[in-house]
Amino acid sequence: MSDKFTLDMLDIPSGWNRGTGDWMGVAAAMKRGETVEVIQEVGSTLWQNSLPEKYSLCWESENLSPIKGRIWISFTQRRFAPESALPKVQWHPRVLWVGIGCKAGTSRELIEAAIQNVCRSYHLAEGAIAGIASIDTKAGELGLLELCRSRNWPLKTFAADILSSVEVPNPSNLVAKAVGTPSVAEAAALCAIAQISTAHQHQETQISINHLRLSAFICGSHPLLVPKKIFRSDKKLGSVTVAVAVCPIDYLG
After folding, report:
1. In-domain check, residue 160
2. Which residue of 4, 118, 122, 222 lies most exposed, with the fewest beta carbons within 10 A?
């Protein structure tokens, strides 16, 4: 193993975010040429093409040498035991699209609190969020715009007729009467991942129901990780509907 190959030399995509973990411990193990296991659950694997001829990384279940460190690449927020002798770190490719439904005038703070609440409840890493999606009438919503600017998240919006064509698990007749589509948060999250996937394939950027179904197989399960959850403020400031979908393509914009 080469003692010149270090953690910082990994050609990780620039859109990925570093998560928590013992970065110094993993870096030290790699510098010593010790075996560090990589468990990659999501995101592009192109970074592996730039590895040198000799390196101390191995992939899950592919190595018999003692493992001295571990790198997780996923959208999950893991909690590592502080007493563990094995140093571990996590990288988060930006693969999660958060669908948002809210009333006009909803504050940035309430929207952010709703997203954080869902992430905690489902053990999702905020660093894995690619962007926000909603109905096109929210394209100028101040609270959404402020949040997206502060977190460097793109805001993707879709017309009601596009959203209404997407099959979702929790349609609402009340929402349909109010905004012209039975789903905002769930449908918008699914539309966002379909748009990213079709754009990646160099096809016309359009919403395809068949592609949404295909994404379910690409992801290994239904792409809607979190069906709509309604977050209500204890201070009676309103409510926010949140849904989260995972895209088979990580966002590098």
Report:
1. yes
2. 4
Angle, in degrees to the nearest 10, between helices 185-200 and 209-219: 80
Q: Which residues contact 244 (CB under 8 A, 6 or more apart)?
A: 96, 97, 98, 99, 118, 122, 124, 189, 224, 225, 226
pLDDT digits (tens, 9 = 90+) for 67-92: 999 999 999 999 888 778 899 999 99
Tell whether 223 and 132 lie within a shared domain.
yes
Name the pairing type of β-strands 57-59 and 69-73: unpaired
pLDDT digits (tens, 9 = 90+) for 234-253: 777 789 999 999 998 899 87
Give the HSE-up count for residue 149: Cα atoms under 13 Å, Cβ half-sphere.
8
Q: Which domain holds residue 77?
A: 7-92
pLDDT in the model for residue 200 = 66
| Same domain assignment for residues 172 and 88 | no
| Structural domain includes residue 60 | yes
